[in-house]
Write a structure and sequence with these properties.
Blueprint: H1 3-17, E1 22-25, H2 28-35, E2 43-46, E3 51-55, H3 60-66, E4 71-74, H4 81-91, E5 96-100, H5 106-115, E6 120-124, H6 127-132, H7 137-159, H8 167-180, E7 185-186, E8 191-194, E9 215-220, E10 222-223, E11 231-236, H9 242-260, H10 268-281, E12 293-295, E13 302-306, E14 319-322, E15 325-328, E16 332-335, E17 338-342, E18 347-349, H11 357-360
Parallel strand pairs: 1-5, 3-4, 5-6
Antiparallel strand pairs: 1-2, 2-3, 7-10, 8-9, 9-11, 12-13, 14-17, 15-16, 17-18
């Protein structure tokens, strides 16, 4: 049995437990996870024992190559997706059709309900996303590859930093290098924030020059196709500001101790609180305004979240970011981020870039 067929079998048990006798998967990322199909505009219908990938003629050859063992329904031009779903569900005598409530629009739900007047729609939540939280060996290997691509690109950028280069130029070059190392693209628009702009957790690159201040925050990742990575480092490009070193060491301590707390059975809340406690004790509680981290995989942000109100227990196979930060408006900010795999006995930091204070100094 293929890894995709095994996933669909797990999902079939989950939607039956939720009270549905079939499930329509409309989230394109979830379709990819369950089938290996890398295109979009396609739905997956899971019936009692049959799995049907619904697509259109643009993807006929691609489907043959990527999903040779999966039944497909290629809807002809002029025949809508909802019409095709209704016909297949009717043919399969579906009484209760599960739909993805956390990603399906109200409009689409109403259209499907209108096309299946004799069937009941059962709203499900996170059935596929819950499966995606636990990565298998192949998924972890693909995340490692995306990390490798991101780290190699970063090393090139670090070596070529110049005072006259702008944030945007660095971001553009970083994506170029990521692609040269084999990635599809960046996982998300890179954050390059000089000095005071580093106080913006999601700063967009501007024409601000690297030499305009003494440090720069770089948050980036590689989309290895389809799995992603996510890293953050702060580099000191000018003189060493004493305040920066103090803040940096607080953030580093918070991150290292939070990572040390990661192991199966510990809750996401508890790990978040380790880092939050250290930052709070240093007097910066109000300056750490986001969760400690998030899952990565097919999406750059996915479950689980390391956050104060998330009491989910960590399990082997989960891959999360650990990224505490301190943000001081008008001065700047520090965030350090690594990608971490939960193992059977603890955790493994998948990223390899140095992050000690000495590593931040660009000489």
């Amino acid at each position: 049995m293929s890894r995709y067929a095994a996933r669909r079998d797990k999902l079939r048990r989950a939607f039956r437990k939720a009270g549905a006798d079939a499930l329509l998967v409309t989230n394109f990322t979830n379709v990819t996870y369950l089938t290996g199909f890398s295109g979009d505009d396609s739905y997956l219908l899971l019936l009692g024992s049959d799995d049907i990938l619904i697509s259109d003629p643009r993807y006929t050859t691609q489907l043959e190559q990527e999903c040779p063992d999966l039944e497909t329904e290629i809807r002809p031009p002029g025949v809508g997706m909802v019409e095709t779903v209704a016909a297949l569900a009717g043919k399969g005598h579906v009484n209760k059709l599960g739909v993805e409530g956390n990603s399906m629009t109200v409009a689409l739900g109403e259209q499907i309900a209108g096309g299946l007047p004799k069937s009941q729609l059962v709203t499900t939540v996170n059935l596929v996303e819950d499966l995606r939280m636990i990565k298998d060996r192949e998924e972890v290997a693909e995340i490692r590859r995306a990390i490798w691509q991101a780290e190699r690109a970063f090393n090139v950028i670090r070596a070529s930093l110049r005072p006259e280069r702008t944030e945007k130029e660095v971001a553009d070059e970083l994506e170029h290098q990521i692609r040269l190392y084999g990635a599809k693209c960046c996982s998300f628009p890179s954050i390059i924030a000089v000095g005071a702009r580093a106080a913006l957790p999601h700063a967009r690159p501007t024409d601000q020059k690297i030499g305009a201040d003494d440090f720069v925050l770089i948050d980036w990742g590689a989309d290895g196709g389809p799995y992603k990575s996510d890293l953050t480092r702060v580099l000191v490009t000018g003189k060493i500001p004493p305040k920066l070193e103090r803040v940096y060491r607080v953030v580093l301590s918070a991150q290292e101790q939070a990572i040390a707390a990661i192991r199966p059975g510990v809750t996401c809340h508890d790990v978040d609180q380790v880092a939050r406690g250290i930052i709070g004790k240093a007097g910066y509680a109000k300056n750490f305004g986001h969760g400690l981290g998030h899952g990565i995989g097919l999406d750059i942000h996915e479950a689980p979240r390391l956050a104060a109100k998330v009491h989910l227990k960590l399990e082997p196979g989960m891959v999360v970011t650990v990224e505490p930060g301190i943000y001081l408006p008008g001065w700047g900010g520090v965030r350090i981020e690594d990608d971490v795999l939960v193992t059977k006995t603890g955790c493994e930091v998948l990223t390899t870039l140095g992050k000690q204070w000495e590593d931040a100094l660009v000489r």
